[in-house]
Amino acid sequence: MRRIAEIAARLVGAQYAALGVPDGKGGLAEFLTYGVNDAQAALMDHLPVGRGLLGALLTETKPIRLDNLNKDTRSVGFPSGHPEMKSFLGVPVISKGEHLGNLYLCNREDGLPFSDEDERLVILLAGHAAIAIENARLSESQRRLAIIEERDRIAMELHDGIIQQIYAVGIKLDIARITGAASPELAGQLLGATADLNRVIEDLRRYIRDLHLSVNYTVSLQEQFRDLAENFRAVAIAR
Question: Which residues lie across from 63 on neighbouring strands?
Answer without folding.
Answer: none
